[in-house]
Write a structure and sequence with these properties.
single chain, 6-stranded mixed β-sheet, globular
């Protein structure tokens, strides 16, 4: 038996319902009650009755529950060990396939780098788009038969450009054909030239330089870095260089360096004049910036960038204290690992303190760190949820450039993200440093407007005995442990409506994803059993997909609450990504009228003749079952009862991504009922 739940999504509706109830209530009966507590109880009890009436008569919850109780269900006991093993193998296979595509591309570049180019290569900044078509995979117009190049304005030799051989283009095309979910493929060289596939018109032609991008730096300097950026903010930095001050140029250089760092690097920032200044940090994390290097994760980089923007130029130029502080950062952050140690010193001139004192400080402090610190100085007065995998191209011992390709995290991790094992069960992934890569409490990989939040998994999984699981996972081991788990759910908007937590007995199953150094953990409720609907037979010809723009029903459309809806009052069905066996393909592929017809024929098929267009096995049964809701929902045109005027839509959603609403209308492609607070 499945339990239906009544949840109200719109606070506005609740407010209206309360006001309507008060308006219809005999006010004299309320006033006649002796005290405020009695009056409040009277209003609350009667308001609750009104909501139950809405649930029963307007949503048909009781009748729907009775209908679901009559259906047959298949109960299956799931083996957690087997599930986590299968998930791990699937993830490893995906990563191997994509790394193999990168390796093939790198080998072709090695073989053909000095060969004369036979490919037709356009400039990404000047090309015309007549031969380009909109492609949902790239969210832009592209030509998947060509690549294009752009030259950095800072290229040291812009007249001597190495053009890639046609065999590189053929391999890029082959990679995309074999793995359609791949995104951009590109090569950046030491001359500041980048070649991008597929060809597309670029908008960043005056600023882009591949040598300053994280994917280039990570591949060309593979060891993780401990880096301290030291910025001179003395009065002399006010001097003009062209239209900008020297300080402006120094800030740009500092932010450019920060932009090349990856989350595996660590960073600190110091500004100095007569005194040394360090970022105070946010109140809850000030220690991250005051005495230790901070992880170079997007949130920290964004904070440091804003701090750099606020620096002004004043005072004299004392190098010694700034260098002492820089070495202190590196010393405090020693962890015994093999990491490059760098101090980037951005200044314009001569120190106020003695040169001998400066040199003594460098010599003494560097000896304390085994002379392992590289100090890079710049004399400035003279003159961007995608992940990238990249490899350096080294020929005859000389770095020629870096080749990379973009992957979406949703493509790589979809099997974990859309895991459906009951209300409480879930899965998460951590990296080799224990940071959460994927977890239900973190932003979804689908949210392209959110920077990834890289925090330690122990800040999310706070169970008393989780430390044992954490230690084993970070060591690359596999295991199982029974724990008490806590699952947190949003009631709506986190900041406004709060959350609810549920504590339950669970079994943690974990296994390493060895090819990338990640570790996967599956959390299943104790003795978990999966319940699925048994096979149902379609009533035929009643399925209607929500893409009304692809269906010939224009005469039946009307504008309703500023959306296109069906005048007839019929319901439509929308499928979330988790309803498909390949969610990322659904999200990346533009739906067509032909595909919608295939959906329709499959859902209306009574004898099993129509092939499955890509749905998971239980989706069709849920579509058929939710059709029953129409029988219990009042007609769209029945507007005689007062409450009818204030209910714009009725809808039902299933855990596996089936969403039915009346009156029918279109929904956003990313919409998923199981991801909504209601």
């Amino acid at each position: 038996m499945l339990n239906l739940r009544m949840d109200f999504k719109l606070a506005g509706f609740l407010l209206y319902a309360l006001l309507t109830f008060l308006w219809m209530t005999d006010i004299s009966a309320v006033v006649s009650l002796k005290n405020v507590n009695e009056q409040s109880r009277y209003v609350a009890e009667n308001f609750a009755k009104e909501l139950l009436h809405v649930a029963s008569e307007e949503l048909g919850v009781n009748k729907l529950q009775a209908y679901y109780d009559t259906l047959k269900y298949i109960e299956t006991t799931k083996n957690g060990h087997l599930i986590v093993e299968q998930l791990s193998e699937t993830l490893e296979q995906k990563f191997r396939e994509r790394l193999a595509a990168l390796d093939k591309l790198a080998k072709i570049l090695h073989q053909s780098y000095n060969s004369e180019s036979t490919a037709e290569i356009e400039n990404c900044c000047d090309l015309t788009t007549e031969t380009h078509e909109e492609d949902t995979r790239f969210r832009s117009k592209v030509n998947v038969k060509k690549f294009c190049l752009q030259v950095s304005p800072d290229s040291p030799n812009p007249k001597n450009i190495t053009l890639l051989h046609n065999s590189v283009l053929r391999q890029m095309i082959a990679n995309l054909e074999s793995i359609p979910s791949l995104k951009w493929q590109y090569f950046g060289d030491e001359n500041g030239v980048s070649t991008t596939f597929p060809s597309t018109l670029k908008q960043d032609c005056n600023v882009y330089d591949p040598r300053y991008r994280p994917w280039y730096v990570v591949a060309s300097t593979p060891l993780p870095k401990n880096i301290v950026v030291v910025l001179d903010t003395s009065s002399s930095m006010k001097a003009k260089h062209g239209n900008e001050t020297v300080l402006d140029l120094a800030k740009l250089a500092a932010k450019t360096v920060l932009g090349t760092l990856s989350p595996s690097d660590k960073v600190a920032f110091i500004s100095f004049a007569a005194e040394v200044e360090i970022p105070l940090g946010k109140s809850y994390a000030s220690h991250c910036f005051s005495d230790h290097l901070a992880d170079a994760v997007p949130s920290n980089i964004a904070y440091l960038n804003s701090h750099i923007d606020e620096r002004g130029a004043y005072g004299s130029t004392f190098y010694t204290d700034a260098l002492e502080k820089a070495f202190m950062f590196l010393k405090n952050s020693e962890n015994g690992g093999t990491r490059d140690k760098v101090i980037l010193f951005l200044t314009d001139g001569i120190p106020t303190d003695s040169k001998q004192m400066v040199m003594n400080t460098i010599q003494q402090r560097n000896e304390e760190l085994n002379n392992g610190v590289m100090i890079i100085t710049y004399g400035l007065g003279a003159a961007g949820l995608i992940t990238t995998v990249s490899l350096p191209i080294v020929i005859n011992g000389q770095l020629k450039g870096v080749v990379g390709l973009d992957l979406t995290m949703i493509d790589l991790l979809e099997d974990v993200l859309y895991l459906q094992k009951g209300e409480l069960s879930y899965a998460f992934i951590i990296d080799d440093r224990g940071r959460a890569v994927l977890h239900p409490l973190l932003p979804s990989p689908l949210d392209v407007f959110e920077d990834p939040i890289l925090i330690n998994i122990t800040d999310i999984e706070r169970g008393a005995d989780f430390e044992q699981v954490y230690t084993s996972m970070t060591k690359g081991s596999a295991g199982t442990k029974d724990l008490t788990a806590v699952r947190t759910f949003s009631k709506g908007e986190w900041s406004l409506e709060g959350r609810v937590t549920k504590t339950f007995s669970a079994t943690y199953y974990w296994k390493p994803i060895e090819v990338i150094g990640y570790s996967l953990c599956l959390v299943l409720t104790k003795d978990f059993k999966q319940i699925d609907l048994a096979s149902l037979v379609s009533s035929g010809d009643d399925f209607l997909y929500h893409r009304l723009d692809l269906i010939e029903r224009n005469s039946d459309l009307c504008r309703y609450y500023n959306t296109s809806s069906l005048r007839s009052g019929r319901s439509t069905v929308k499928f979330a990504a988790e309803a498909f066996t390949d969610p990322s393909r659904y999200l990346d592929t533009e739906e067509t009228a032909g595909r919608v017809r295939h959906y329709t024929k499959f859902m209306n098929d009574r004898i099993g003749f129509v092939p499955n267009p890509g749905f998971k096995s239980d989706i069709r049964n849920n579509v058929i079952a939710t059709r029953q809701a129409e029988k219990y929902w009042p007609s769209f045109h029945r507007l005689d009862s007062g409450i009818q005027h204030w209910i714009p839509w009725r809808y039902i959603g299933t855990y596996n991504g089936v969403f039915r609403r009346i009156p029918g209308g279109m929904n956003h492609k990313l919409y998923s009922p199981s991801m909504r607070p209601w």
